[in-house]
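RECORD TYPE: inverse folding
INPUT: structure tokens
STRUCTURE:
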């Protein structure tokens, strides 16, 4: 079965049943005058709504974190709370590197931590980041994978079952999996392609 074209005539079932690259989703949004910003899950939800109703969804009244009005500002004290419009920007990357060191990087865990801890201060963020950095050094530690990172989750699940196979094998199975209809979760039947 061939992957259908992503256009306004695709059925919602076909849309939900195939893997789409973000660039394909953005292009669909452009062609149909839908908002093009956001991560893959947001774009997917927006397109699914459009395919079901024929209308653009009403976007949240909450301003997007990345609007022109959301100016990112460095704190004047580490005891300042992280602002509501916080994004993992280059400005904050440089700020955290200046305090933690060049080994600082943004993580999915810390993004979830910020969302789960309203009013968290920059100092609390830094302390929690350092704790997570230490946990990552443990042999059995597995960091959370964001829901939108299907490839990373697939590769992790592949190696949990196939420690003796290579990354090249995992990628070959992933490419085959996403070219087929259905969910993109690892299954032992994926090995038939090898």
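DESIGNED SEQUENCE:
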């Amino acid at each position: 079965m061939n992957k259908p074209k992503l256009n306004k005539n695709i059925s919602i079932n076909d849309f939900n049943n195939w893997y789409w690259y973000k660039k394909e989703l953005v292009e669909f949004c452009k062609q149909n005058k839908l908002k093009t910003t956001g991560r893959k899950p947001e774009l997917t939800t927006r397109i699914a709504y459009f395919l079901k109703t024929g209308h653009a969804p009403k976007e949240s009244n909450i301003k997007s974190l990345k609007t022109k009005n959301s100016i990112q500002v460095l704190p004047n004290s580490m005891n300042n709370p992280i602002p509501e419009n916080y994004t993992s920007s280059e400005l904050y990357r440089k700020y955290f590197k200046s305090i933690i060191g060049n080994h600082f990087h943004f993580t999915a865990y810390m993004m979830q931590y910020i969302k789960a801890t309203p009013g968290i201060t920059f100092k609390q963020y830094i302390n929690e980041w350092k704790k997570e950095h230490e946990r990552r050094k443990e042999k059995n530690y597995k960091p959370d994978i964001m829901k939108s990172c299907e490839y990373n989750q697939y590769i992790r699940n592949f190696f949990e079952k196939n420690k003796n196979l290579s990354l090249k094998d995992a990628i070959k199975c992933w490419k085959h999996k996403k070219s087929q209809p259905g969910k993109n979760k690892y299954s032992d039947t994926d090995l038939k392609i090898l």
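NOTES: Helices lie at 12-17, 22-31, 40-53, 90-100, 108-116, 122-135, 150-161, 167-178.
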